Amino acid sequence: MSNAFGVKLKQLRTERGWTLEQLSARSGLSISHISSLERGTRMKPSFQVAVRLARALEVPLATFLEDAGEEEVDPLEHLPPEIREFVTREDATPYLYLAKRLQEARVSLQEMEQWLRDERSSPESSTSGTSGDKPRRNPTQT
Fold it and tell me: What start-end ranges are recorded for coiled-coil regions in this protein (predicted)?
């Protein structure tokens, strides 16, 4: 079995000039865990570990999944059934697009919740604003 995941992980880390300690701090994973993945002594990281590393390295999760090679990975497999059902519905497309835009803009869930609360409590449009009001930031705009 190849260690494509570990090779890719080390390549991405070293391209950034990061130490194991720096990636550990960014991902929340232990240094020994990351090191064992890179060396291939730990071959199959969990989906959650792959997600944490992809986020820390600021790369799409697919970066790691493409290199797995040995087996097909269903990205919906790890989702709760109600979420999986929602994202596969035809009418979910606009919501998935919004979620993608929010992720690309690095908008946190807390920021989005606050923005929605502000929008709901304000009678004016978010783009208009009244004199003296501080303009609100649209969470999808960078």
Answer: none
